Amino acid sequence: MLCGDFHPSKSATLRRDNDPQASVPGQLVSNRRRIVAWSTLGSVVTLAVLCACLIADEQRKIRSAAATVISKPLERVAEINAAFEELRALDAQPCSATHPAALRSIAFRSAIIRDVIYQGENAGSRCNGNLGAAASSLLSKSPDFTTETGRRIWRNVDLPLSPGVKSTLVKEGGYELLIAPEKQPATVEDGYYALSIVLLNRASSTMLVVRGADPGLGQPLFISGSTYWLRGDLFSVACLPGQITCYVLKAHGLAVLVSNLMLLIFTGILAGIGTALGVASWSARKFRMRTIDALLREAVAKKELFMHYQPIVDNRTGETVSAEALMRWTLRSGESVSPVVFIPIAEANDLIGKLTLLALQRVSEDFGAFLRTHKNFKISVNVVPADMVDSSFHQSLQHHFDKEGIAPTQLAFELTERTSAKLESAVTVMLELGGRGHEIYIDDFGTGYANLSYLSDLKVDKIKLDKKFTDTVGTGTLRERIVPSVIELARELGVEIIVEGVENNEQVKYFRNRGVHLMQGWFYGLPLPSGELIRTLEVTQGWGTSQVPRSADMPADDVRYELELAAAAMPSAA
């Protein structure tokens, strides 16, 4: 496992201490024009979106207000239509003794009809419900408006007995209704909307504004339920049945913006800040990734990377039988860089081969003396197929291990199964290494391309079951049900299994009960510097004193760092 025990959140903020322009603040300063431009654009786009949302919301509000405004007129029209229908059905002789009583009854039962009048043809008999047959004509001029159905309307008509009390007179056939004026809707009284009431005769293309100012809309725009933005103002149209009378609400565009001014300002500021922070974060990340390339090349050239070793334990005896070498990198500033960060960059920059050579050198330096005196202990090193076909790899093995008296059986290679093609390219070399005594492991098994039938051709000695399978123990998932099959097939092929990512006793029991005994994970120990691990082995396994360079001691910060990594990842495994 190259980096399975690391958490990406622990990656360092990368910088050079002696280069002020390499710090994140320095990068932000150098990119201030870009940040200002993008934050301005972000503010403009956000304000545009917000304005569009405000407009949509205002359209919804004004449509709702128009529906409220028209609710009472709808009732008035229904009442007027019902009155005319009842008048048409009367059987009484016009202006007879019973006729005015019938007219009076219709007026008394209505909340808006002040009087009902009958006017015979050719200035014939005339009577009404309240004034009787002696009433004189109320009409002395042509109607103000004639509807498409023939109804005639006079506005601002004075009652005979109440001068100055205005009414609207509506005439259909021989009957006339005196209608009380309509009250101002509450939504208009608050001053936010301007109301106009318009009478339409589409057949004659005539239009009469009976209340408010002329809205300035052409007849084709008087469609009930429509909303328009015209000349910077918002209009909503609601018409009574038949499209004879239309109510138009108008909101001034400036008033809409002013009413939301603080929201626009506040949102614009937040958008600018958010965009600036986003651009700054992107610039800083891009800068860090550019910087780490150079820092990694320098660190590899100066051999500043080092190894920690995580024990692999036989759960039957509790003894540590081997350890995996894991590469670590700490900057001069003391900040640790996660392999999750630097391994992919090394791969992208063709540095993996150099890291492998450095790992072999470090293992020889850290564990050479120990391995020469403990022939049954081994170290496993992560490699990729390209390493195995590189002559430098074999020269390093000869120089750091063969000449130092370290047996091939004490050095195993963990091969990452990323592509089957690359694995096939290394088959011959793998067989040669196996013939010399080196064991070959397939690392993170189950996440790549190798399969169990392929393992027999590669002469693999062990597979390392990926932590993703270990985490499924006790979950009842499909992946957990696959694990026993993997164990059984591996056993039939004569391939041992090392379980990665063991973190609790339940997992230990699960695999031990299925005959799997080699385990690795925080349950058994964190990755440690060679000196720390060797002293632990001396104490726990009674292997006596070894000559270990004091430079290999683990700094307190490294101990804390490994513990923090363990603590950070524990919840995710639950």
Describe this protein's structure.
- This protein is α/β, with parallel strands linked by helices.
- The protein has two domains: 52-258, no CATH class; 303-573, EAL domain (TIM Barrel, Alpha-Beta Barrel), CATH 3.20.20.
- 44% of the residues lie in helices and 21% in strands.
- It is built from 18 helices and 20 strands.
- The chain has helices at 24-30, 32-88, 99-108, 186-189, 253-259, 261-301, 339-348, 352-373, 385-388, 391-402, 420-425, 427-436, 452-458, 467-470, 478-492, 505-512, 530-541, 556-573; strands at 113-119, 126-128, 145-146, 152-159, 162-172, 175-179, 194-201, 206-211, 227-230, 233-239, 245-252, 306-314, 319-330, 336-337, 378-383, 411-416, 440-445, 462-465, 496-499, 518-519.
- The chain has an eight-stranded mixed barrel, surrounded by four helices. Strands 2-1-6-5-4-3 form a six-stranded antiparallel sheet.
- A hairpin with a 6-residue loop joins β1 and β2.
- The radius of gyration is 46 Å and the shape is rod-shaped.
Poorly predicted parts: 1-30, 545-555, 567-574
Q: Into which percent range does the helicity of residues fall?
A: 40-55%
What name is given to the CATH topology of the largest domain?
TIM Barrel
- The end-to-end span amounts to 21 Å
Give a topology summary.
Blueprint: H1 24-30, H2 32-88, H3 99-108, E1 113-119, E2 126-128, E3 145-146, E4 152-159, E5 162-172, E6 175-179, H4 186-189, E7 194-201, E8 206-211, E9 227-230, E10 233-239, E11 245-252, H5 253-259, H6 261-301, E12 306-314, E13 319-330, E14 336-337, H7 339-348, H8 352-373, E15 378-383, H9 385-388, H10 391-402, E16 411-416, H11 420-425, H12 427-436, E17 440-445, H13 452-458, E18 462-465, H14 467-470, H15 478-492, E19 496-499, H16 505-512, E20 518-519, H17 530-541, H18 556-573
Parallel strand pairs: 13-15, 15-16, 16-17, 17-18, 18-19, 19-20
Antiparallel strand pairs: 1-2, 1-6, 3-4, 4-5, 5-6, 7-8, 7-11, 9-10, 10-11, 12-13, 12-20, 13-14
Helix pairs in contact: 2-6, 8-10
